Amino acid sequence: MPDQKRFLDQKLIAADFYNEVLVKCPQCKAKAAAHADSLSQIAKLVCTECGYNKTATMQNGGGRTNAAANTYFQAELWLQYPFGNDLFWAYNEQHLKYLEEYIAASLRQSLNRSGFTMTEKLPRFIQQGSNRRALLKIIERLKQTL
Ligand SMILES: [Zn+2]
Fold first, then answer.
1. 21 with 77: CB under 8 angstroms?
2. Which of 1, 27, 33, 129 could form a disulfide with 52 if both were Cys (CB 3.0 to 4.6 A apart)?
3. 3-state SS, residue 136
């Protein structure tokens, strides 16, 4: 079957996408970016549209934290779209493309299943082949907002 697409799990975990997250600007609702730097433990949300600019410390009760950059600002994700009772979402463009590759592939290959990679933890509606076409349409729409 020559047209079969193969997805090779690159072993990325959700945390690999935490550092730069596209969000809805809390002020003007335009596309903005939240950055988290786990070394300095400083997170920033910057909107080039309206100039909104906020910094937050990632420390939590004295301990270091590492969560998705948007969580420090309670900012809504930019890349999200309802799918039935579920919500399809991605942190950023790279994450969206990774999900697209995964969803588009009819052969999903993971060399050593660990149970911890991002794709292994995806919700069922994303893993279901019967949702493939609908999900790829959503991804196309989201890409146009990038
Ligand atoms: Zn703004």
1. yes
2. 27
3. helix
Kindly give the distance from the C-alpha atom of residue 36 to the centroid of ligand 1, in angstroms, as a whole number: 18
Question: Separation of 29 CA from ligand 1 center, angstroms?
Answer: 6
Amino acid at 82: P
Mean pLDDT of the region 25-29: 96
**From ligand 1's centre to the CA of 32, what distance in Å?**
7
Give the Å distance between the CA of 11 and the centre of ligand 1: 34
The Cα–Cα gap between 116 and 131 comes to 23
Torsions phi, psi for 57 (to 5 deg): -90, 140
pLDDT at 111 over 80: no
Radius of gyration from C-alpha coordinates of the chain: 17
CA 49–ligand 1 middle distance (angstroms): 5
Structure tokens at 132: 């493939």
- Mean pLDDT value across residues 112-139: 87
> Alpha helix (H) ranges present in the chain?
93-104, 124-127, 132-143
